[in-house]
What we know:
12% strand, disordered N terminus, 2 domains
Amino acid sequence: MGNHHSHEKESVVKTNSGSGASTPRGGSHRGSGSRSGSGGDLQGLEKSDKPPPSMVPVEKLAKLLVQRSQKEDGINGVTEKSFTKYLFPMYPELAKQFYKYIHRTGKCKNQHIPLSTFKLHCEKILAMLDDSIILDTYVKMFSSDTDDNTVTPEGLRSLLYTSYKLSMDHYPEGPQTCLMIHKTLSAVVNGCFNNKDSHSVGFVVRWLEEHCPRLIFPVHRYCVHMLATRHRDIEAHVESSGDGAGLELATPVLSRSPWQAASALLPLSAAWLLAGAAPPLYSRPTAPTGHGHMISVPPPAVAPGGGLASAAWLARLVCAVPSHWTPLYSSRDHGIGANRFLHHTLAYRGPTVVMLAGGPLVLALCAPQEWRESHQYWGSGDCALVQLAPTFAVIERAPKMLYLNTSIRGYPRGLRAGADARAPRLSVDAGFDSLAFQGVPYELKAVEVWGCGDHSSRETQLEIKKWQVKEAERQRAVKLSAADWLDHPDRYLLEMAGRPQYNNSAS
């Protein structure tokens, strides 16, 4: 990726999210929705053909690694052993692929990497701003050993697992594991390769941009973080760390209710996958104080004259504090049915993810706003329908693709999703007994609803439900006086039914 600056001069082709249109690799800017997952909008920054200015953190890191390589391996350069031991000790696979990438793109003649080559390519990685270039770089990093323009299923799986492992190790509530991760990764790999043995780097990059554009960016954040700060630990002779302490990545926190010990349809690995596939609204980063949307890592030392370029790559170090996903409804615990779905889902004034299972099929329906009954399709451009199993794919992203009607006569009953009202991609019948996906019928086995809004959204919903219960009890306890009963409409209905007198003694 040593010539990535030339890619930035290619013509820009914009596509709508979910359109499926192919774009030139390394020369496309996606919409603003997809850019937020990698750090923010930096399109307006000036770009030049000159390499980025020397950065003090990288220069210090390179010299320290060369010193360790000379001392431990007797080689004047950066060896793979020292690179792995001191830079990425917790992630040897990432270290191996990163080192091979620099060695390959730097056209090194020996097994080690010269100091100047190491420094140059690390600076280029720190200076990357374009989302497509970032994806292209890391897909190439995990490409085939024999052909750096070919990606195998094993290479993509390794890259995805690295991203997953980083996200779980830096989970806000402590390191996590998920027993379903291999099944989740297999669904993504199968969705991309479709039983083929390999794909070109360009194909894989375009597929990732189309289906899960933000899934790989945690790897870039972590690499930038370590390249910019690791020299401090090495100077302080801290050799066993390297975990990127303080680096938080945008994986949703799955809150568990007392009635829900474990989710049947949304394991942690599926939530991680959805966070990289669904629009950013559902895992929107927020500052811990609640006063903003992003927090940043303290800046490392920058060489004089670094100025704008240093600020640009530092902006890529934005760390996202993920939102909590709160369970609202589970058919396993609350029973399945339209009335149960409505009772637990309505009045939640925030984005939600509805999980649906039918046989081997698992779908996620992303609703950006409060659910409501209507005879018309509704929803903003952040609506999405995602297939999680048996293969992974973003089926559709479009506005006005949600439909829910259980009571309005003369219109189709049930839940539907799809931009084409005449042929919706998803259709759930009025009794929540079956679903049809892409025209294929399935038995509806399980439904879950997760609230993806802030804490106040759930509190507001609970307050509304409390008010509804109290109002129902008050209505039930109302006692009518004799005068009120004479003019009450229920009295006339009883008389029309042939019962002019209605009291406890009447038989």
